[in-house]
Amino acid sequence: MSTDTTLPSQETWIADSAIDVCLKEWQAALPEGRVLVGNAIAHYNQSCLGISKHILAALQPQNETEVIAIVQIANRHRISLYTISTGRNWGYGSSLPVADDCAILDLSRMNSIIDFDAELGLVTLEPGVTQQQLFDYLTTHKLNFYMPATGAGPTTSVVGNALEHGFGVAPEEDHFRAVTSVRAVLANGEIYQSCFTEMGAPQAGVWKWAIGPYLDGLFAQANMGVVTSLQIALAPRAEHTEVYLFTLKNKAGLEDMLAACKTLFADMRGPVGCIKLFNRAQVESTFGRIGMGFIDDFDWIGIGVVHCRKSMISTMRKEIRRTLSSSSSRMLFINDRRNALLRKLAALIPGKKKEELLREVQRAEYMMDVTNGIPRPDALRVAYKYVPMPKPSLADPARDGVGILWYAPVMPMKSATVLGMAAMMESTLAEYGFPRGMTFTITSEKCAIGVVPIIYKRPEEAEQARRCYHALWERGNQLGCPLYRINVEAMPKLTNRPGSVYWNTVAKIKSALDPNHILSPGRYAPANKE
Questions:
Q1: Axis-axis angle for helices 254-267, 313-324 (nearest 10)
Q2: Most distant pair of Cα atoms in the chain: their distance
Q3: How many CA atoms lie within 13 A of 227 on its CB side?
């Protein structure tokens, strides 16, 4: 097979296998240079997992019509496709397929913002639209809505994150919950649309569930079709946004802090967004020193956000202080106005004190940007423990040699459960020789999600990292805390459990929609055993 970025002409091509025939037909269906093979596809095999797959080719459609042609050709010749949005699913697989012998269906060129209803805050966008692109669009058009930012960086897909059940700290924290309609190409080339959209009422997507069985969820964390666009409900910007930080001096007080956070959510649902709890090791790897008057004598630090009217903020601060004061050793509120004043103050201070104050302001501005839905490239800094980080805007952890796997359990907000998980994670990471940093994102008074990086030296520690990941997974399951998201290497273990009625049902739906099993085989679904 050629190692050029394009294929030989049809006159000289010898089709001696199904993939050869497929490649020739894909070349005829797509513009020149959009069917890649050989050396041109090497970057698709880069990931932070320390594994590789045999990839047949990469296809780069620019519109839905081309996707339909690709899928129909693949279905006809029974060649598997693995769909990616931008391929920047760091720590979960990047562009890697679950199974060998797939052609990558790369949707990154499909990057149009199709429609925006400024009155309802409904945006319809394609999979290649990045966080930075959507943020720039909202800014340019003076649309006063939050961009659903995550810590994955500005170059990652908004659609891809929503389909992976991602979450953030801006309102509408649950990004798939904000999805109001789905459009997808099925394995036979048909177009699936959400019920109301198919009925000619796309704005009726303000009622997520439409009517009849809810089917849109089949396309999230699944392989039932190729999603070509989503409609997402964005939250309008609050008049005032403020971040509050609070510390816990020792682990003994963590139970009281969890109880206080539950009370805060129960009593102030709406203005109070999610709360992130970082242990000391994670703070040091993410922020370095916090500064801002915080003494480095804490075991945990909490970072929360308030979105409200300006007239409400003094009352909100009072209630937050009252609720958290008994379990925290220090508390600080920061906002854009405070940061601007500190910058002015820094201009008047000479020498090292000026530099120290500016670093503190930069950390505070980073926190405000994230809560305001502004994508930040330096959010990836935590992953670059063992390799030099390039200029943040150029960071690509898979390419740069970063080794990271994310362990992401769902934890019921019961003190005994969360405390047990914290102890288990710390001891397991230490047992396998990895940094003991962890973050708990409290999304409600009922639920917290662990965000735990296994950061390792690639490639020499890759196998040890995978063993650590599987140990965390198994021990978390024993404590009643399953994963909410999983990497491509671990998917077969999740889905191929003998006797599972759940996964057998998924397999039956998959076989009905994709009888030749060509779409992303093994992705959140049992492998075809026929």
A1: 150
A2: 78
A3: 32
